[in-house]
Amino acid sequence: MTARPSALRAESVPAALRRFTVLPVGGVMARLRARLQPVHAQATSRWRGLAPRERKQILLMVAVLAGAAVWLLFTKPALDTLRYWGEEMPRLRSQAAALRDILADVGGVPSALGAQTGPPAARTSASLDQIGLAGTYRMREDGTTLIIGFEQPVDAARLTTWLLNAPAGLGLAVERATLQRIDGDEHGIKASVTLAARQRQPGNGT
User: Fold this and answer.
1) Are 102 and 110 in contact (CB under 8 A)?
2) Would you state the pLDDT for residue 148?
């Protein structure tokens, strides 16, 4: 009764698995070393049999091949990348400059829409600073009005675009604007602007 399970287990194991043995790592390395040893011995024997001139030629050829591999795998791709960006950077700079000019022309609209919090003076100052007019003006409050004096020359197109678009988004209205051209400056102007809080239209409140 006890011998039957052993017999069944022996018969159920395939013959290929019974012949399979796992070699330790040391055994694998020993077998690999045994296979490579004749090749190494043969190469060493041939190398020793070469004349000094032939050895120099082989070493030179190996050095040339190694240098070519380094050039193709590392140096050439790096130089190609540098050359590519060297050609692309001027074009990207010109595109960035053109984009800045476009944003400056319409700078009043995003500045007004993005400054909806805080007191009117702070919102107006932030809007002017965003279009590049920081440091060119002085602002003072007179009751519910803001008086802005541009003491330094500013770009006429940039300021007029801001006056046409930004105050409404800031909850203000242009009450008075005085623009003065500067002799010898085609685009620069000095200006004085008075902004007042916009009055709610009847029927819009709750």
Assistant:
1) no
2) 93
The single-letter code of the amino acid at 182 is I
Q: How far is CA 97 from the centre of its chain?
A: 18
Residue 148 parent element (H or E): strand 145-155
Running along the chain, 206 residues long, what does each successive block of 10 average in pLDDT?
A: 46 50 66 82 82 86 90 88 84 71 51 59 90 90 90 86 86 88 79 84 48
| Helix (H/G/I), strand (E/B), else coil: 185 | strand
Residue count of the chain, please give it. 206
- Residue position matching structure tokens 């077998």: 31
Cβ distance 146 to 194 under 8 Å? yes
CA pair distance 122, 139, nearest whole angstrom: 10
Residue 163 exposure: Cα atoms within 13 Å on the Cβ side = 18
Q: In the chain, which ranges are continuous DSSP H helix? A: 3-12, 15-19, 25-49, 52-70, 76-105, 108-114, 120-130, 156-169
Q: Distance between CA atoms of 107 and 99, rounded to whole angstroms?
A: 11
Vertex 133 angle, CA 128 and 135, to 5°: 110
Alpha carbon 42 to its chain's center: 56
Task: Specify the pLDDT at position 138.
Answer: 93
Q: Residue 107 has which token pair?
A: 């700078």
Predicted TM-score (pTM) of the model is 0.42
